[in-house]
Design goal:
This protein is about 50% helix and about 0% strand. By secondary structure, the protein is an all-alpha fold. The chain has 2 domains: about 1-45 and about 245-458, no CATH class; about 45-135 and about 140-195, no CATH class. It is globular and about 65 Å long.
Length: about 450
């Protein structure tokens, strides 16, 4: 079926415009922006290995707010033995070990994997195990995950190893589970539950306010696609260190199959509620890529059995939210949400897309970054807007936003192995986008499916 899709898509003529290579002058401007951003981040580190200008005054996510700039510096070419990187690692390790925050553990996993220090093997295993245990019955993640003791960690990894081994032999997760004896303490974890026992619905909202941090960061909170995206990235790099993550990814893939809005092509912030930024489209596309690459697509999902439809619709929706380059890097360009730029960049790299549809995504984003960089090398920490409220987003602060910018400009690709496993290449996907009907490319806003408060199917 996948091969036949590839043939059909490959036979279509893509409407993607030819991408002109960057001129030497353009590349020099980008390289200069990267060098200035690197210099700023290195100069903004404080003596203990952390960074200035933290996002939260209550000292939340301290390890994450150091792991992200350190990871960006590594991606930008700073060597692992650089004193700035080593100081960051020493600062991050003990704080990550004490953390139960999804965002934090995931970013630390990205950093430690990229750092490549063998002594971090046990810490990587511990953080990844917490993420696996923190997955909800909706296939996603909330803000916090449980902290397991050593015995619980070992038991969970042993059972997951057996489960993953059976799945690699061609059995489904449910088939392997029938022959397993799960200890009572682990029976509630989604990876050990049959699909029929997974609820695919969130608990009722407690209508908490933004100030009610105790409710927002409770362990039994509602999941969202932002936390899920970071858990996805963290677990992907953790598997390079022998962590059995396939069962978790199977449930996660089903989440994005179920919550995709056809024909609008979007995913929302939550699985069953309206609202979210264009970045959530990128999260859904990443989730589907994992499912396609690892052959974890949910049986019966998709439209008319065509498993590529969700991806094509998602890419069409993403293309609509990307602008066109002006062709100039020497005059002011609009400033865009850097969290979105980083998300779109990872999707384009993941699917091997030189263009997204007919949009030259890299030149478009690079023009914005080159022309909006501050004289001292940083980028503004304020995201211009939250699409579903019309208000400004969190102040990411200079160090975090500069990290996002560097990751975009360097075309960071934390999931390189997955690209080679995808059944369709970038040119074929763009050819598929060209074949979509105008009503599919530019659909009217879709209403939530009947019986839900938002974007998921029951």
């Amino acid at each position: 079926m996948l091969l036949s899709c590839a043939v059909v898509l490959g036979s279509a003529r893509s409407d993607a415009a030819d991408v002109k290579p960057l001129t030497k002058e353009e590349q020099d401007k980008i390289d200069t922006a990267i060098d200035r951003g690197v210099a700023f981040l290195k100069g903004a580190q404080v003596e203990n290995g952390a960074w200035k200008w933290r996002m939260y005054r209550d000292r939340r996510f301290q390890a994450a707010q150091s792991a992200l700039p350190a990871y960006a510096l590594l991606e930008a070419g700073v060597p692992a033995d650089d004193p700035v990187i080593q100081k960051a690692a020493e600062y991050v390790r003990p704080k990550a070990l004490a953390s139960d925050f999804t965002y934090e553990m995931s970013l630390v996993l990205l950093f430690l994997d990229r750092l490549g220090d063998p002594k971090d093997k046990q810490l990587i295993r511990t953080l990844a195990t917490r993420l696996i245990a923190g997955q909800h019955h909706t296939g996603g993640w909330s803000y916090r995950c449980p902290i397991l003791d050593e015995r619980g960690e070992q038991s969970l990894l042993r059972l997951l190893g057996f489960l993953s081994k059976g799945m690699k032999k061609g059995q489904t997760r449910e088939q392997v589970l029938r022959g397993m004896e799960i200890p009572p303490a682990l029976q509630a974890l989604p990876v050990f539950r049959p699909n029929a026992a997974l609820l695919w619905r969130e608990p009722p909202s407690s209508k908490e306010t933004i100030a009610d941090s105790a409710a927002r960061f409770s362990e039994v909170g509602r999941t969202d696609n932002s936390n899920t995206q970071f858990a996805m990235l963290g677990l992907w790099v953790a598997q390079r260190h022998g962590l059995p993550v396939t069962p978790s990814f199977e449930i996660m893939t089903a989440r994005f199959e179920r919550s995709h809005l056809y024909p609008s092509g979007v995913w929302w912030y939550g699985i069953d509620e309206e609202g979210g930024s264009r970045s959530m489209i990128c999260v859904g596309l990443m989730g589907l890529a994992i499912g396609r690459g690892l052959r974890l697509a949910t049986p019966g999902a998709g439209i008319d059995g065509k498993k590529d439809v969700h991806i094509l619709k998602g890419l069409a929706a993403l293309s609509r939210r990307i602008g066109r380059p002006t062709g100039h890097m020497d005059r002011p360009a609009p400033f865009y949400d850097l969290y979105f730029l980083w998300s779109a960049e990872r999707v384009a790299m993941l699917y091997d897309l030189r263009t997204i549809g007919d949009k030259d995504w890299y030149r478009w984003g690079a023009e914005s970054l080159v022309t909006n960089q501050k004289p001292s090398g940083w980028w503004s920490g304020m995201s211009p807007h939250m699409e579903w409220t019309g208000k400004k987003n969190y102040d990411y602060r200079a160090t975090l936003t500069t990290a996002f910018a560097l990751l975009f400009l360097k075309r960071s690709h934390p999931m390189k192995e997955l690209t080679a496993k995808l059944p369709l290449r970038g040119e074929q996907l763009n050819a598929g986008l060209a074949r979509l009907r105008p009503s599919d490319k530019f659909p009217v806003r879709a209403a939530p499916p009947s019986g839900t408060s938002g974007g998921s199917q029951p």
